Automatic annotation (TrEMBL):
This is Cadherin-13. GO terms for molecular function: beta-catenin binding; cadherin binding; calcium ion binding. It is found in: Cell membrane; Cytoplasm. It comes from Erpornis zantholeuca. PANTHER family: CADHERIN-13 (PTHR24027:SF80), CADHERIN-23 (PTHR24027). It is a lipid-anchor; GPI-anchor. By contrast to classical cadherins, homodimerization in trans is not mediated by cadherin EC1 domain strand-swapping, but instead through a homophilic adhesive interface which joins two elongated EC1-EC2 domains through a region near their Ca2+-binding sites to form a tetrahedral, X-like shape. Residues 161-235, 236-353, 354-467, 468-575, 574-685 form the Cadherin domain. One of its GO terms (biological process) is cell morphogenesis. GO terms for cellular component: adherens junction; catenin complex; cell surface; cytoplasm; side of membrane. Its main location: membrane. Keywords: Calcium, Cell adhesion, Cell membrane, Cleavage on pair of basic residues, Cytoplasm, Glycoprotein, GPI-anchor, Lipoprotein, Membrane, Metal-binding, Repeat, Signal. SUPFAM superfamilies: Cadherin-like.
Length: 704
């Protein structure tokens, strides 16, 4: 393959010795394969004191760095990941170098980005007084602290000046992580770093005089925290449940398992590989599933015949899945999770009746469930592939039967919904079919066992007689003579084969107006029918009668009779009000408006005729004026003295013949002062006494 292209990111030629790697970051083009023992690149490490006890560690165990700094592969490696890290440590210094492996199409862009950053990365395209090369520090370093990690150099010397470091991690939170030797420019870290908390620090370094005045800078100093494999893969999205249909083809994807690793995603520290550690249960095969080591996809690996839900020990499998970083190598950290896989049912078994013929017995006239039909189905009871749907396909022309599914037992509940009649048919034969809610799969069909016969025997019972018609209606005038015939009821016995006799009786007669002949059913009156009775509603009187057969025990039928009562003029009109009050000095002599009402119906009610009875005395004291068909007004013809007066008023309705009612209107003439009315009786009844005296005088004259 082509030799790797190496780019030097930082150098300090012609400057004083800086302990550590003389080049810390490399970009190389990914070869087709790293060949065993072939040079990848050369790393230069110098602790400025002879490199005593120098050793190197490589993040990828397939590589090593020899003492002369040559990085070589220990074997042929086709995939080394996106980056390699080399840690060097001697008696006096330690440092980290980072090697990024680029695809061919990435290299040009990467070089451009590097050149853009040359000022910050220390490439001296123009002369600068301060050289601050990027510092790489491994996370999780152990004490002692502080630990020297880099050096800032001033090309013009450090006499009379000092270095000053600032930024996040120095004088900004988190404070005090880094510090600089004011005189030498040595940069130290004071505590253990955590890349997952902060991966990069951007600091500024400047040179100031002894009074603190800036002479050079500030110049950016980048510190990158190098990832260590200190985080285990974690499954965060559980619970993990997958479904696969029984009989699925080999290689069917069930679900995907995805773990998270908080380490640097560009390194092998977060390069995950997946594996199935355990499968429960282990039948019918201990290896029912396979997981793609890179993607985490779980797929089936057994034949469709073995993926049969009905023959499995359990339709639920639990897989213990392991995720390991470092690309799955033995040194990688692991995390586990449980994947639950459910084998879903498909409708590959038709329901079958447990027997070909069922028997049922039902009494005539009774409705409800008469028999439960049982079926068997090997499919999953929680699905439509198991739930049964029943239908009656023959023997139900009158729709007297219905069948429904019991959702708990899956049985077919056969019911009578229209009462059966023994005298019409004593036997019924039904043909029942059962299917599933879900359709069967194409290669399965319903067979003869999916139909069954139900033989139903109807038992004879003593049925009560039936009135014809029911209810019965008749129209009669109220006040017809007692003993009048209303109608003759008719009831028949449905039990035509038993030749029974029927007798009648009154069941409910609220007003006690009726009687019935127990033999022939003739209904007659025992009292006057009154349309205005409180037992009559909307002109209709209702009574109930019984028809009782001669069976053992006897059976009873009930008939309803509605009598519509026609009105006759049998109620006199009534007058209201019967009391009125007026002031003795009233200017308005219109005393009261009277109204009339009648319990009868039109035309036996209004228009009403209002009249005053003959007034006594030399002068007329009042008159009555008709206002409309139902009201009239009483008017005084002069003011009266304080007293009580009785005014006889007659009201006549419009019936034929008309009826008249005379009612006395009591008129109180009161003293009225300051809006107060005093009606206490100080005088005797004026008109009444006058009438009494006149009557006595008349009797006295006649006696002579």
């Amino acid at each position: 393959f082509f030799p790797p292209q190496v780019l030097l990111l930082a150098c300090a030629e012609d400057l004083e010795c800086v302990p550590g790697f003389q080049q810390k970051v490399f970009y190389i083009e990914k070869p087709f394969e790293f060949t065993e023992d072939r040079l990848v690149l050369n790393l230069k490490f110098d602790d400025c004191k002879g490199n005593n006890k120098l050793n190197f560690e490589v993040s990828n165990p397939d590589f090593r760095v020899e003492l002369d700094g040559n990085l070589v592969a220990l074997k042929n490696v086709s995939d080394a990941g996106r980056a390699l890290f080399v840690h060097a440590r001697s008696e006096h210094a330690e440092d980290m170098a980072e090697i990024f492996i680029l695809e061919a199409n990435e290299k040009r862009g990467a070089l451009k980005e590097i050149l853009k950053l040359e000022g910050n990365l220390g490439i001296p395209r123009q002369k600068r007084a301060i050289l601050a090369t990027p510092i790489l520090i491994p996370e999780n370093q152990r004490p002692p602290f502080p630990r020297l990690v880099g050096k800032v150099i001033r090309s013009e010397g450090t006499e009379g000046v000092k270095f000053r470091l600032s930024g996040k991690g120095v004088d900004q939170d988190p404070k005090g992580i880094f510090r600089i030797n004011e005189m030498s420019g040595d940069v130290s870290v004071t505590r253990t770093l955590d890349r997952e908390a902060i991966a990069n620090y951007e600091l500024e370094v400047e040179v100031v005089d002894m009074n603190g005045k800036t002479i050079d800078g500030p110049v950016r100093l980048d510190i990158a925290v190098i990832d260590q494999n200190d985080n285990r893969p974690m499954f965060k999205e559980g619970p993990y449940v997958g479904h696969v249909m029984e009989g699925s083809a080999t290689g069917t994807t069930v679900m995907r398992m995805a773990a998270f690793d908080a380490d640097d995603a560009s390194t092998d520290n977060a390069l995950l590989r997946y594996n199935i550690l355990k499968q429960t249960p282990t039948k019918p095969s201990p290896n029912m599933f396979y997981i793609d080591p890179e993607k985490g996809d779980i797929v089936t690996v057994v034949s469709p015949a073995l993926l049969d839900r009905e023959t499995m020990e359990s339709p639920k499998y639990e897989l213990v899945i392991e995720a390991k970083d470092m690309g799955g190598m033995d040194v990688g950290l692991t995390g586990t999770a449980t994947a639950t896989i459910l084998i879903d049912d498909k409708n590959d078994h038709a329901p079958e009746f447990t027997k070909k013929e069922f028997q049922a017995t039902v009494k005539e006239g009774v409705t409800g469930v008469i028999v439960n039909l049982t079926v068997g189905d090997r499919d999953d009871p929680a699905t439509g592939a198991w739930r049964a749907v029943y239908s009656i396909i023959n023997g139900n022309p009158g729709q007297s039967f219905e069948i429904h599914t019991n959702p708990q037992t899956n049985e077919g509940m056969l019911s009578v919904v229209k009462p059966l009649d023994y005298e019409i048919s004593a036997f019924h034969t039904l043909l029942i079919k059962v299917e599933n809610e879900d359709p069967l799969i194409p290669d399965i069909a319903y067979g003869p066992s999916s139909t069954a016969t139900v033989q139903i025997t109807v038992e004879d019972v003593n049925e009560g007689p039936v009135f014809h018609p029911n209810p019965m209606t008749v129209t009669k005038q109220e006040n017809i003579p007692v003993g009048s015939v209303v109608l003759t009821v008719n009831a028949t016995d449905p039990d035509t084969l038993q030749h029974q006799t029927i007798r009648y009786s009154v069941y409910k007669d609220p007003a006690g107006w009726l009687e019935i002949n127990p033999t022939n059913g003739t209904v007659g009156t025992t009292a006057v029918l009154d349309r205005e009775s409180p037992f009559v509603h909307n002109n209709v009187y209702t009574a109930l009668f019984l028809a009782i057969d001669s069976g053992n025990p006897p059976a009873t039928g009930t008939g309803t009779l509605h009598i519509t009562l026609e009105d006759v003029n049998d109620n006199v009109p009534s007058l209201y009000p019967t009391l009125a009050k007026v002031c003795d000095d009233a200017k308005d002599l219109r005393v009261v408006v009277l109204g009339a009402s009648d319990k009868d119906l039109h035309p036996n009610t209004d228009p009403f005729k209002f009249e005053l009875s003959k007034q006594s005395g030399p002068e007329k004291l009042w008159r009555i004026n008709r206002l409309n068909n139902t009201h009239a007004q009483v008017i005084l013809l002069q003011n009266l003295k304080k007293a009580n007066y009785n005014i006889p008023i007659s009201v006549t309705d419009s019936g034929k013949p008309p009826l008249t009612n005379t009612t006395e209107l009591r008129l109180q003439v009161c003293t009225c002062k300051k809006s107060k009315m005093d009606c206490s009786a100080t005088d005797a009844l004026h008109i009444s006494l006058t009438l009494i005296l006149l009557s006595l005088l008349s009797l006295f004259c006649k006696s002579f």
